[in-house]
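To fix ideas, we reproduce below one chain and its tokenised fold.
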Amino acid sequence: MCEKITKVNSWLSAVFGDQPVPQFEVNTRTVDVLYQLAQSSEARCSDTALLIEDLKQKASEYQADGAHLQDVLLQGAGLSCASLSKPAADYLSALVDNAMVLGVRDTSLGSFMPAVNNLTNELLEAEKSNRRLERELRALRKRLGATLVLRSNLQEDINKTVKAQAVESAKAEERLLNMDFVTAKGKELSNRRERAEAQLVSRNMDKSITHQAIVQLSEEVTTLKQEIIPLKKKLEPYMDLSPSPSLAKVKIEEAKREMAALDSQFEMNVNFK
């Protein structure tokens, strides 16, 4: 524990430098976390230092190679950076820039060709992937259009259904109110009928003057009237005949007897009711 605290304090002092180290609660968890951070930081710093040394070494090698190539150009061809024309210097700068972009070690043709081939392959793969993505995008747009149309149709159907449901709900509510009214009215009329029947029974009313009896009597009167009509038609021919006392008297007596019988039956029915 003391060793970890010492290492943590040393690391914090190195990190903050001249600034004061912030106060923190010293416990096992805090010390362990800071100790792990210190170890990770030291490992990263060590890796970074090694990388810097490697880059410095490569830079020294590149500088040595550049100086050697300059000597070769100067001694073999009498060329130097100062003796190059502006177009040649521009071409040389462009060549160097391309070499840096392609990530090649030198500017030889053997280094440029593989790098250009790799870049061309990457371009072809990117174009192939782009075409595939465009096809997928067109398919997605097509499906999206169909989905939007379907959504619009569904929304329209939903709106129609909601409106129809509202209308049917209003009709159902109206029918329910009417049914409640009719039921209440039926109960009221039934109660009134029962009270009226009770009153009639309490008053010992003759059943022959009830509505049902009157309706039946009316039907019987109508039947008797229908039976009288043929008899009247039988009498019509005799009304136009010349007077014949004996024959007319006989026919008149027969008609009177039939009329008397019908009147007697009619009176009996009326008196019976």
Remarks:
- The CA atoms of residues 63 and 69 lie 10 Å apart.
- The radius of gyration is 63 Å.
- The chain has a mean pLDDT of 78.
